[in-house]
Amino acid sequence: MKVLDDDGSGYVSWMIAAEQWVLSSGPKPAVVSMSITGDGNSQNEKASIDALVAAGVTVVVAAGNQNSDACGYNPAWIPSAITVGSYATGGAKSGFSNYGSCVDAWAPGSGILSTYYTSDTSTKSMSGTSMACPHVSGLAAIMYELNPTAASMTSTQREALLSVGQRTDYVTGLTASDNNFVFLAPTSVPTPSPSPDGAGAVGDPHLQNIHGDRFDLMQAGSHVLIHIPRGMSVANALLHVSAVASRLGGHCADMYFQHVNVTGSWADAAHPGGYHYSALQTEVKTPQWVALGKVELKVVHGRTGKGLKYLNMYVKHLGRTGFVVGGLLGEDDHADVIRPDEACSKQVSLEVNTDGQGSSSASFAVAMPE
Predict the structure, then answer these.
(1) CA distances (Å), 198 to each of 144, 235, 240, 267, 294, in order?
(2) What's the pLDDT tens digit per position in 237-248?
(3) Where does the Peptidase S8/S53 domain start and stop, copy by copy (predicted)?
């Protein structure tokens, strides 16, 4: 929606009118991306954006390009909006970007190639927090796609889903009051040798082990993702994470985790009996990182666009345990699980929810660096 004149000028009331149209008439779920900055703090616009967020809309705004405190600019100062500052290649804060406690996250904004208004095919490399803001807006749109019920969640729950893939302390050149948080952080190129936090597993499910090897899970059934034994005992584990995968589509790779079980002495110390998650759980809490010894784990519930329920699992710090890590995210051989069943293309079994809402499951697990 165009809210400024051809010279890039306008009134706050014009922005509020656009926001209120989205609130009253726009399709939902929705993301409002505002690459606009003005001086001062408008209470009227704060009320307008607050109403959008309360209605399930995620509002992402640019921090501004004055190399100053974003709290002095509108709408960057508004707490209910996600305010985005800019960093350059390598993670250094862009020299023009506003900063301070009102900036919630950072994204690439220096030398961003995009389309340009001079023609239907024109492109131009431009810099500004107006370029950084859409990176986070796009991630918010993906969050809604993967979690169709997100619009009915609280803003805190939506932000928890949005921040599942994140990196802290990545951007350099910030002040002590800055939130050094990146939603869309670059990932390093996997190397064949183990790295301290190189393990990972993402997708439906796509896995990346501690060596950086990436592969798709093709076998249904129960799989050990992490196993850290206590001493020489295989049975008595410090941490044991298993997941049950089901094939819920026509493709051999349409494999989804329906259950995740986290046991072992580290899990029992954090929560007696460990943690047990199901895609069919009716009472879903806001996902939080759980410390299990030196490992941290988070499980997130969601639905696919077709309404299939799934569990996302994220793990970090596997390389810091000081122990041998077994399981598909660790040192175990994955050659067998990447081969599809011979009959997978001929017969696909669908599991049915017991809550009357259709087919269930999906998943992904991630072990991620800081």
Answers:
(1) 28, 26, 19, 22, 15
(2) 899 999 998 876
(3) 2-162
